[in-house]
Each structure stands twice: as C-alpha cells, then as structure tokens.
Amino acid sequence: MYKLAIFDFLTVLVMIFLFDFPRKMVVQFCSCKLAQLWGQQEFQVPSNVLDLIYGQTVCWIGTFYCPLLPLLNTVKFFIIFYLKKMTLLKNCCPAKRTFRASSSNFFFLLVLLLGLALSWVPILYSIFTLTPSKACGPFRGQSRIWDTIPNAVEPLPQVAREFLYFIGSQAFMVPIFVVLCILISYLVALANSYGQLVKELKTYVQMEGRDKHFLVKQIRELSEAHEKRHRAEHGEGNFTHLIANPF
Length: 247
Description:
Elements: H1 2-29, H2 33-38, E1 41-42, H3 45-63, H4 69-90, E2 92-93, H5 101-128, H6 148-153, H7 158-167, H8 170-244
Parallel strand pairs: 1-2
Helix pairs in contact: 1-3, 1-4, 3-4, 3-5
C-alpha cells in the first residue's frame, strides 16, 4: 500500500512536470498548426476528483495493514493540492464545458461510497479468514485476527462481558438496522419533499417575474397613451386659442 500511494504521487508529479508544463510551452511558443490544434490543456474537475477518490480508497484499504499510511496520504494530498493549483493557474485554460456541481455531487459521493464498501472486503476477509503471521505482528499466535477480541473480552467483569456480547448479537443489530432503514427512508422522503418544494418555488418565482414584466409593460403603455393624449389635448387647445385671438 505504501508503494501504491508513492506511485500515485510520482504519477501526479510526472504528469505535471513532464506533460502539462511542456505542453503549455509548446502551445505558447510554437506557432505550427499541429501545436495549435493540440491546444492548451483544460482542467477537468471530474477526473481530478476521481483521482482523489482513488487515493482515498487506497488509504482506506491500507490503513489496517500500514498504520502510517493516513499520515503519508495526508502529506501527499497536501502537496498535490498546491501542485494542482499551480498547474491550474499556469498550464491550463478554462474548460469549454461548464462543470455542473449540482449534477455531479451525487455521482462522486456514490463512487466514494462504493470505494469505502470495496475497501472493507479485503479487510474483513483478513480479519475473519486469514491466519496471522506466526513470526511477527500484534496477532501472532492466534488462529485468526478476530480471536483477539473474544480473548480480550473474557477477562472483563460479567456485566461488561454480557453487555459487549449483547451489542454484538443479532438481538441488538437487527433493531438498529431496522431503525437506520426507517431513518434513511424518512430522510429520503424529506429530501424529495424539499426538492418538490424548491421546484414549486422556482415556478412561483418565474411566474412572479413574468407578472412583473407584464405589469411594467402595461404601465409603460398606459403612460405613453396618457402622454400622447395630454399632448393632443394641449396642442388642440392652443390651436383653438390662436383662432379665437389671432392678435
């Protein structure tokens, strides 16, 4: 896992310094049609977000086996952030297609959740199935990693032991799972109702805008008609006065 994290970091460095920066220099200082057709690189938000999700998934998988991996991953992301900022400001041009965060947030969260679920598969398999190393490690001498937990619970007092066994039993987990499902269903229904309310409010605002535009148009037309009538009456009165009193 350390190798995967370091290799991912080196890949980012190679892409920035050996691909993005030379491409910027070629496009800027070379006037040939091929270079101009190649064009300046666009900063793609989705691909960079997926790269972050990949790095986070590697960190989740390797944390159980490599305790210092989260620290290494934090330093890596800290450096990558400023490198990406530099390449965004210096080497990239604005994307032709505008990134819509509202339509992509759900997809990114779904991919992140999928990465979290996949990261649990090898960890759970190692905990419940594989035999630990007999030469080194905190679990040596055990047939499985999971056996460490019952061995740690046995010396506890009876009340604490029964309480922990009850938390790990189906009598506790099944009701908790049902309550969580009900809570999630309620939150989903609440979010849908809020979404419908937002749509209705948007429609109401649009109707209010059209009504205001219509009222402004009517006021303008009435004002112009009143001004024309006032000018006509004023002009006719002056003409009658001139006929009656020519001198």
